[in-house]
Batch of 3 targets.
Target 1
Amino acid sequence: MTSPRKGDVHHSLSVLDAVAVLVGVVVGIGIFGFPPLVAQHSATIPIYLGLWVAGGAIMLVGALCYAELGCAYPDSGGEYHFLVKAWGAPVGVLFAWARGTVIQTGAIAAVAFIYGDYAQTLLSLGAYGPALHGASAVAMLTLLNIAGTVGSKRLQLVLTGATITALLIVSVVGLTLSTGAAAVLPDTPWQAPSGSLAASLGMGMVFVLLTYGGWNEAAYLSGELRNPQRNMSQVLLIGAAVITVVYLLVNLAYLRIFGLDGLRATHAVGADLMRLVAGPWSAVLLSLLVCCTALGTINGSIFTGGRMYYALGRDVPALRGLGTWSARGATPVRALWLQGVITLLLILFGALTNGGVQAMVAYTAPVFWLFMFLTASAVVVLRQRDKDRHRPFRVPLYPLTPALFALSCLALCWSSVQYAGVGALLGLAVLLAGLPLLWLERRVPSA
């Protein structure tokens, strides 16, 4: 196997360019939906803030591992490609199944519920309003993507700016205009979640790391970064620091307004903050911005998620129909239809369990962290198996760094299974339902 040639990739990204991309990918809708859920698993304010700092550290270590894999084995398949290289085609195919039926669809459904919570403040649709709003958004954006790639990309450009705008408004208003009144308090005293303290903190960390989600995209920056041996660590350190500081500032604003008890009780935390500090019309404005941010996240996830079904159809003859590509719309139509149906069924499941976002996190978390563990372990496996491979970037403090990240992934997988209950079991059951694919798949050639 030959090393990649320097002339194969155009190294056009500076450190500043790469940091901007990384921050833009990570900072998103989660900061408007997950903080109350983190607060519900935190007994004190120091524990709450500590979880966010720890999440930033785990994000950095994970990004370092992904950066080595991305530099050594650049491929648009991302984790799918890494898993095939390290563990073989069957594991890669099973990951594609899991991503299509659990990880990606569950993530889209979770964001749909966050969108629904904010849309419900603008137009109430009754007890199942968040689910109805979320399902409508998924259905319309799936149809838009089926119609063609051009319309989807144009909408994405329109929605992208709402995220940073909303974050700036919340941070500035919460930290400068607040009198510190905790005005949204629960009717009953907070009770710690059932189960062990470690499991509760672990589940809190799951919500934190969902908010930090997207850091694994750093793997795809390495191939276009100038002098990746020197600059990759700078990009990751600066990017992780910026993201962590931004999230801490927003959370300090939340705590200043609500206090920890009030934060646990709110559902649309950004809108509630603006309503308390600047009145109902400002809450409406922020809700509109957050809805736009959520729609952008849903649209982008639908766009990229359909491509994984396409890869599964390409590699498993029995699912060849999913590999059909529409030349007219430049989009995998059948894959998008299937993804949309699965996502709508998950929204229905979340609505019936009265869990919403929590039900979707429980459904996706164990499977997500299981494959994240396998990806982290791939750093060690490929170092041993492919010693002569050219690695433009090497994770520092090897093998301690990938070992720590792999153990963190295992701990988070266990915590989510132990605490999340029926949703976690359903996600694992769907993963196991994909085992027959291992007998149907043809051998995926190594790259």
Target 2
Amino acid sequence: DNGVYSVSANAYIDLNDLNEAAAIGDFRDGGIVFWVDPADNTHGLVTTVSDLNSGNSITWNNGTNVPGAEATAIGSGQANTTAIVAAQATGTYAASLCDNLSLGSYNDWFLPSSDELYQIYLNKTIINTTSVANGGANLNTLFYWTSTQDSGNANLAYILRISNGNIEVNNKLNVAWVRAIRAF
């Protein structure tokens, strides 16, 4: 069975192309589902099973102002990451770790916006369970970088305290942990 079925004389449907419903905690599309689009439960966001940078903390960037990286909403992390990488270019920093990640057959990873990362916090228990079950690690209990630069001070970007969900500003030259995400 190759999953291709004829539905009329010259029309075919490949069942492998049909989108499947997603649920929080599913391991699919390269990671762990932590947010499902309420308008279409076949699309959403996944996170990696482990922190990037070999589990070590890293800076947001070199302190460069990044116009265009101030969005907070779900769906804005990719654009923020693209802006950060364009402004910073070379080097090893939070957004570059995500932007350069190739995991499985996926190379479209990015640093989550503050609202996207908050969804990881809300679902951290099931993410940890699925991470460990798939060879990964629990979320660190401290701070994770978002891709969201502070709109009032270009020296600051937002972090999320995974223990309580607080979103706080942090100097970009300080260090925090990183989990990449991607859309499916």
Target 3
Amino acid sequence: MNKTRLATGVLALAVGASGVTLAVLGPEADVEHPAPSTVEGTARAVSLACPPDFEKTMGEMTAGIGGEDSDTLLRTRIAVVSGGEATLLDNTIEEGEGEIRTFFEGGSYAGELRVEPGDEPALASGASQRLQETGELAGMAITPCIAPTNAQYLVGGSTSASSSAQLVLTNVSGSPATVSVTVHTSTGTAGPNILSSTTVDAYSSETLLVEAGVRDPRLTIEVTSTGGDIAAHLLTHEVDGITGAGIEAVTPGAAPSDHVVIPGANLAGEDTVTLRVANPNTESATFSISSITSEGEEQVPGSQDVTLAPGTVLDLSMDGLPGDWSALVVDSDSPVLAAARVDASGDYAWLSSTEPLSEGAVTIPESESHLTLFSEEDTTATVTFYGRRGDVVDSTTVSVSPLAQITAPEDASHAVIESEGEVHVGILSTADLNSIVGIAGQSLTPAPAGSADLTLQVNN
């Protein structure tokens, strides 16, 4: 269990709501109801927790694995699309040459990315990218900066004999957070263990080695907190004999739902696609899976009316389905969690389930990145790609009906998506690492709620 103190001087996470109505009720009486008073609201700040680097955790088992480690390329990129003053730890993100402000440095910058509100609601994205060809941590991971909340759901990872998972909990607020961790496995919800409860001090992070509490090939983790919001990253890596077999950061997906969408997997490529479904309930859930591609909607054979016991996690192969870039959809009679794993040559990626958004941003460094957009109703979306210095590389408007796929330009570093209706967006990135293919999955960083009126109504 590792504790890390974040840099001092970090501001607390701003909280707010798009609108709040307060009613103060006195004794029953016939009274005049005055007109509500309206107070002008303000745009919210952005507070994102950026991740630490991966660590070797398999000990003597992988000593000298595959010879010496190859050189590691580790970089952090930040894009500030809108808002006021922006800081990453003690670094001020200054105005750049292009339309957006960017930060590009070697290494990881574990801590808070904060953007104060400006004339428009703040929007930003960031990620650290890790590239390594050989060694225990061989592969590519793009680990995004994410917004802290009081409930997060991570579907992915394993703690079998050849796998490791580190749960990183980051608190960028000024209050200690009491954190509860629930782990669902292939055989059911894990009993109380050393992972189940911990406290993360203000402006600190804590790393929990998941295999110290739970050993299982299929994991889904729920993280809830009180006293302060938490950002949760699950940093995973695997080995195959004496060879590193990939790294990936599992990031939070959508909350349990009876309709779960996972966009971004290519069903026509050489990669292997597996869908993981978890039942976090105390009763059984019955679900069915469909695949939506440019060829239409296809019910997945062998994945119709599947019953999943309480607390259990199931992996289902998506191989052999027709079509190409897809949105995988899980419909269930009770809320479930889901994500997709994509296996390439020597590495793997996890694609999280997504919430529909009308605006968001993503960092896509040094990779061939594919964006898959899916909408339940026909809409249009504009995708603008930016270079490392914030210059516009390309901008395109696509019809999402119900699916659209865009490949990022080679020199793109960030992307901003704006749509007329709400869309689900999944990003799958690959990089040639000579002997292996690095692969990583991402989803959009959403724009926070903007300015709104606060209505106060008092009944005397």
